[in-house]
Amino acid sequence: xxxxxxxxxxxxxxxxxxxxxxxxxxxxxxxxxxxxxxxxxxxxxxxxxxxxxxxxxxxxxxxxxxxxxxxxxxxxxxxxxxxxxxxxxxxxxxxxxxxxxxxxxxxxxxxxxxxxxxxxxxxxxxxxxxxxxxxxxxxxxxxxxxxxxxxxxxxxxxxxxxxxxxxxxxxxxxxxxxxxxxxxxxxxxxxxxxxxxxxxxxxxxxxxxxxxxxxxxxxxxxxxxxxxxxxxxxxxxxxxxxxxxxxxxxxxx
Length: 253
Fold this sequence. Notes:
Blueprint: H1 17-35, H2 42-48, E1 53-56, E2 59-62, E3 86-95, E4 103-117, E5 120-129, E6 137-143, E7 147-152, E8 164-168, E9 176-181, E10 184-199, E11 202-214, E12 219-225, E13 229-237, E14 241-252
Antiparallel strand pairs: 1-2, 2-10, 3-4, 3-14, 4-5, 5-6, 6-7, 7-8, 9-10, 10-11, 11-12, 12-13, 13-14
């Protein structure tokens, strides 16, 4: 998922680290309770990563003892951008995120190839929120075999609002890459490769978990399932708030 208008994450005022962490945890708990999820696994997610298990809301992921071969083509793990009219439906939870509803649903409808970006094909995706929140907008992605980049909006021709590198080949355990997003240096790390995840009651195999850390406070975790794409996202970013998405379904219209 994305934010400046592209990826949105929790941003708080400059306070003491201990106070900041306490406020963030309390806000997250209130957000989960507001949706009636009742799972309260936000803290568990951080504690359980060392055990090869992570949980957030009503979703969980577990590592696989056997390690798959490295993946040279990230398109096998990304949303089906090239399939026109393929639709993904996600839940949405946000806090202090000006471009996203506090709760509801998001439908992403693939519009196909529209341009190129640094020699990579660019694809458009129509984002529509439930509850009549905002006006449907086109969001853009650059995708090839070696990387998947969320470009955000296009306020003027060939001028995108972001350049967030979701995935970069080869995908394998402990793979890392870096990029600049919104003027912030971000480092991505594949912390799980070939895991099994449960999201909104559905089980996904061959899952990649990527964690993102920025020098200005951005943090995030995303799960990508082979053959499906993004199934879970939790991103926090100073000044842009927090957004969490869980995949409900995807289908060809």
